[in-house]
Design goal:
The protein has a two-stranded antiparallel sheet. Strands 3-4 form a two-stranded antiparallel ribbon. It has a two-stranded antiparallel ribbon with strand order 5-6. The chain starts with a helix and ends with a helix. The chain is mainly alpha-helical. The longest helix is centred in the C-terminal third of the chain and has 36 residues, at about 165-200. The chain has helices spanning about 5-15, 45-70, 105-115, 165-200, 205-220, 250-265; strands spanning about 25-30, 35, 75, 80-85, 125, 130-135. Among the domains are: about 5-45 and about 50-90, no CATH class; about 125-150 and about 165-220.
């Protein structure tokens, strides 16, 4: 019985983990990246041969990358065994442009002038009387502690019909309204600064921006998002709807299945 073909098929399905390259690959294990500077080799005449060669090159690079990952220190957790990746060494360009600086609000200007650093307040505060942690505000907040006292002294100049609890609650709510008004005022002032910048444009440039905006709106009103419309010289590019990507907050099991499906296409 000739088993040559069976052995060849078995050998193809179980490729060697030791890959030999003319020039060794460089790796950035922090990014799980491998860089192959070897040329593809013989001249490729058709698309099918190119696809086969690229698949083989990708498979070899992936195998070498996995070999290097297995040489890293590992730790065992409840989800499995994980390799401790080093810090990335390759500098990757930004995907998005650098965001523009937002104008400072009145409080931010004052804090910067006085050297005040913002510190995040704890949501829970220790109540010394009860010996428990209570929210600083909101439901059962410690800011309502004075209102919840079973005995509240009446001010000497207050009327006998004066409700102290209602007065304290009103004082607290007035303070909340005051803070909201301040926040609204700061937002409006920041918006006015942006408006002043736009006013600094000359009428010609301002009209040009308005025309571009109108053109984009008219393009996006079609079902094809303006793909088949005639292009105008200097026409701004229409942003297409972003592709919804899967969430990065996945469980270790889901991550493992996704990686298996990718590697199964290479090996």
């Amino acid at each position: 019985m000739d088993v040559t073909k069976i052995l060849e098929k078995h050998a193809l399905g179980n490729k060697d983990v030791h890959v030999q390259k003319l020039y060794p690959l460089s790796f950035d294990l922090g990014l799980l990246a491998a860089f192959d500077e070897n040329i593809l080799g013989e001249e490729i005449t058709n698309q099918e041969a190119l696809e086969t060669k690229l698949m083989q090159t990708t498979r070899d690079a992936t195998q070498l990358l996995i070999n290097n990952i297995f040489s890293l220190p590992r730790e065992s957790t409840d989800d499995g065994i994980f390799a401790n990746l080093p810090k990335p060494t390759s500098i990757i360009p930004r995907e998005k442009p650098v965001p523009k600086e937002k104008p400072l609000t009145r409080w931010e200007k004052f804090a910067k002038l006085k050297g005040i650093h913002k510190t995040k307040k704890d949501r829970m505060v220790f109540d010394e009387e009860t010996g428990e942690l209570r929210p600083a505000w909101g439901y059962k907040g410690i800011n309502k502690k004075e209102e919840e006292q079973w005995l509240i002294p009446l001010p000497s100049n207050a009327d006998s019909s004066h409700d102290v609890r209602k007065s304290l609650a009103k004082k607290r709510k007035d303070l909340m309204e005051k803070n909201k008004k301040r926040q609204k005022r700061n937002t409006e002032e920041a918006a006015q600064l942006d408006a002043k910048k736009n006013l600094s444009l000359n009428p010609k440039d301002k009209r040009k921006q308005q025309l571009k905006k109108s053109l984009v709106i008219s393009k996006t009103s079609t079902a094809s998002m303006g793909k088949f419309d005639n292009k105008v010289e200097g026409e701004p590019k229409v942003r297409k709807q972003k592709r919804k990507l899967p969430s990065v907050n996945r469980s270790a099991l889901d991550e493992r299945e996704i990686n298996k499906s990718i590697l199964s296409k290479l090996f």
